[in-house]
Structure prediction request, 363 residues.
Amino acid sequence: MDYQEKALLDFLISSGRLAADKAESLRVEALTMGKNLADLLMERRIINEEDLSQARAKALNIPYFSENKVSISPELLSLVSVDLAKNYQVVPFDLDKHAGTLSMVMVKPEELSTVDFFQKRTGYKIKSYLTSKENFENLINNVYSQSLSGEISGVLSRGKEQAEETGIRLVTADTISQIIKEPKIVEIVRKILKHAIRLRASDVHIEPQENITRVRYRIDGILEEKLSLDKDYHAALVSRIKILSGMKIDEKRIPQDGRFNFSSEYGEVDLRISSLPTVNGEKIVMRLLKKSEKVPTLSELGIRAKALATLEEAIHIPHGIILSTGPIVPSSFPTLLSFSPGRKFNSPVTFSPLSNKRKVYSS
Prediction:
């Protein structure tokens, strides 16, 4: 019995998937039939590809990578193109510049030629993680295919070449005015907003961390991390957004707010922008409100059955008050708007500041 078969059986026994006596009988049966033990176990549906990959990781003494959704910086993705990733079945997911190590998810980390190739290509020592082929496909689709990180990695790759020509690399007080006009900064802001509209995000949070800038979208009320950028880009990114929204770029000690419109193939939105000073730099929050979106009906908002009947009855009562509470987007504001069409009642807006220029009053 080779070491991989032993690791597979040990994994199944320790996880309670297989009794020791049953494991031995299956090993003997595979040997008698001249079959690979893993193939026999998968044929009998005792294990799946994930189990087999975990057993391989244990046999090779390599960490197993089970996550299929990760947020990876565009700078990191620019080290490994999508073609190389698919060809060698690898995905980079972490870079430690101080230690000089690049962490990569691999389907076949035992192939030392692949490890040696990427060490020479990137200049970093490769730290391998094993994953299943199915999980690798999910990672590739999540990280590269039509992803925000994938698109911005391309922008930064082109921007790097331009930076080498112009000599501009770091953001300083002297270079900020020139950097915020660079095509790559303009393009990054455009892609962040375009993806936000496509994903129907209600808010975009640009948050400075200690070493990176994190971009998160609020989708269906839940904040999801979609992008992480090198901290060197933060000042230029924030300044670009502040200029668009009419804020003072030299004022960084107090909160500010502004607004601007943005249009793409996915629709036109009105954006309300807020900036807030933090320990790590200025945080930007952008609230997106679709101008062209029709007012939803109560049933389209998900109000059903008894709740809908109760609300419809309350709306037609000639006196009293109905309170719509909760976050302005995406709950209270659309709910309030859906009350108004065709209704003869007064619906005062108590949002401060007013989120969107819509006529909500009815009499």
Notes: Confidence is low (pLDDT under 50) at residues 161-173, 350-355, 358-363.
